[in-house]
Prior knowledge:
The protein is of the alpha+beta class. The chain has three domains: 7-53, Orthogonal Bundle (Helicase, Ruva Protein, domain 3); 60-112 and 156-194, Tetrahydropterin Synthase, Chain A, CATH 3.30.479; 117-154. It has eight helices and three strands, in the order αααββαααααβ. Strands 1-2-3 form a three-stranded antiparallel beta sheet. The longest helix is centred in the N-terminal third of the chain and has 19 residues, at 35-53.
Amino acid sequence: MSTTITAQQVNDLRSQTGAGLMDCKRALVETNGNIEEAITILRKKGAASAAKRADREAKEGLIESYIHVGGKVGVLIEVNCETDFVARNDDFKALVRNLGMHIAAANPLYVTRDQVPEAELNAEREIAAAQVAGKPPAAVQKIVEGKLEKFYSTIVLLDQPYVKVPEKSVKEIITEAIAKTGENIQVRRFVRYQLGS
C-alpha cells in the first residue's frame, strides 16, 4: 500500500534540499514519505548530476574578496559557473563569499589534489613511512595512505571539512550548489593574505 504524499511534504523537502518539485515528489513516493531517506536519494542524484556537468565549460562567475573581522586576514577568490544568470544569483554570491570565509579560516594551500607538488607529496609520504617503520609492509602502505588522506584534508580546499558544516567537505557543498543551480561550478583560484606573513 502506498503512502499519500501531501503538497506540504513536497514543499518541506524542497525547502530542505533545493531540489525541484517533481524530484522531491518522486523521492517521497519512492521512500513512502520518509523525509530522511528522500533527502539521501536527492543528495545521491545531485552528486550524479554534478558529475555529468563537470565537463561543461564554466567561464562566467565572480571574483570576491573576503576580509576577516579585525582586518588581519583577507582572501581573493574566483569561482566560475556557466552563465551570468547564475553568477548574479544570491545563492551563488553567498556560496562564493562563504568559500572566501572558509579559506580565511582553514588556510588551504591548493584548490585540488593535482595542484600539490610531487616533491611535497613525496616528502609527506617519507615522513609518514618513517613514523610507522618496523610494521609489516602491507600495514605501512595502508597507514601511509591514511596519513596522506589526512594531509590532503589540511592543505587541499576541496578535501577540507567545510567550516560552517564540518560533517561535509567543501567539495560536497559545491556539489550541492551544482545540483541546485543545474550548472557546473568550479573554484578556479584563490589567494589568502595574512598580516605579517
